[in-house]
Amino acid sequence: MSRLYAGGLGRKSGQAPGTLIHVGEKHASKVTLAIMDYTASDLRELESLTLAEALTFQASKAVTWLNVTGLSDTSTVGTLCSHFGVHTLAQEDVLHTAQRPKVDIYDDHVFMVVKMIRYDEKSRELDIEQVSLVLGDGFVITFQEKEGDVFDPVRQRIRSGKGAVRTQGADYLAYALMDAVVDNYFLALEEMGEDIEEIEAAVLEHPDNDVVSSIHHLKRELILLRRAVWPLREGFGTLMRDATALVKPGTVPFLKDLYDHTFQVMDTVETFRELVSGLLDVYISTVSNRMNQVMKVLTIISTIFIPLTFIAGIYGMNFRHMPELAFPWAYPAVLALCLLIALGMILGFRRKGWF
């Protein structure tokens, strides 16, 4: 079963639309809230807020980034979303961690689902985590399943005041967060590319069953990555075409650049899939060539021994009147004949380039 779009779907059966039920793996036992509230000249950064403290930032005149980690407490998530005016269907999707990446545009906010991906080089597996993002008037809310993310570069830019993020609005912050997610796809692809090179070397040097397992495993991970990236093209395209008042015209070129990056990721994924499929063909060819070499050697040995067996068979017959049996030098003569036949056949095979 896929790690991307499966798990716990049965719990939603029969429930009314908008029912808040957490679907997916439970990574965190409690919900933690962190705030970055900033303008071009001022920054307030608070961690481990209570729900009541977080709700007060709705009235902030600055750009507010509220990061929510842990989705197990559906009551906290629901209260927070309702207070910020998040649509009930979007709230349901936040808690449904097997959601397909998408962009939904509502009247007063934009809801986005992306897959945050990190690649484990030891296990050669993708760590896939759903990140839901709500863009509202002056605020961005991100929902993560567990601690740890790829947003530290964005946080550092906000703290240092470098770049455009401190002077732009919430729409640019949303772009920066999505850009951090997509940029991490390139890091994962770079590490997967190194693994492909290692597997390619193993296929040529010592092909075995472990190599085949590695090839099939990498193919599955590339399929997961493709399924995480492919819907983003449509989502970012929708965000550019149907840009609401929440997305300023100055942010649209950045979204277009992000849209282009998803195409680059998809091109690389498709290239890697072809390479991995090609590695399987190379493996089959390498094994077949080695088997052909073994069969060639065995065939040559068998062919050399055919006339020798014929001669040995003749003189192994126990007829009484065989004139050669009475010759004193018959035995060494037959051995010499067998040796000459074998050497002659070997030389003939070498001239033909058979070995």
Which features characterize this protein?
Methane Monooxygenase Hydroxylase, Chain G, domain 1, 8 helices, 2 domains, alpha+beta, Beta Polymerase, domain 2, 7 strands, 355 residues
Describe the structure in your own words.
This protein has 355 residues and is of the alpha+beta class. It folds into 2 domains: 9-152 and 162-286, Beta Polymerase, domain 2; 293-351, Methane Monooxygenase Hydroxylase, Chain G, domain 1 (Up-down Bundle). The protein is 53% helix and 15% strand. The chain has helices at 51-55, 74-83, 88-95, 152-160, 170-205, 209-241, 252-315, 330-351; strands spanning 32-38, 43-49, 63-69, 102-105, 110-120, 125-136, 139-144. A 7-stranded mixed sheet has the order 2-1-3-7-6-5-4, with helices on both faces. A hairpin with a 4-residue loop joins strand 5 (110-120) and strand 6 (125-136). Helix 7 (252-315) packs antiparallel against helix 8 (330-351). The longest helix is centred in the last third of the chain and has 64 residues, at 252-315. The mean pLDDT is 84.
The helix tally amounts to 8
* Classification by helices and strands: alpha+beta
Q: Provide the gyration radius in Å.
A: 34 Å
Give me the strand/helix succession.
EEHEHHEEEEHHHHH
Assign the CATH superfamily of the largest domain: CorA soluble domain-like
Report how far the terminal alpha carbons are from each other: 49 Å
Q: Which fold name is given in CATH as the topology of the largest domain? A: Beta Polymerase, domain 2
What's the average pLDDT? 84
Low-confidence stretches: none
Report helical residue fraction. 40-55%
**Main sheet specs:** 7 strands, mixed
Name the beta content range.
Answer: 15-25%
CATH class of the largest domain: Alpha Beta
The CATH architecture of the largest domain can be named as 2-Layer Sandwich
Give the strand order, joined by hyphens, for the main sheet.
Answer: 2-1-3-7-6-5-4
How many DSSP-defined strands? 7
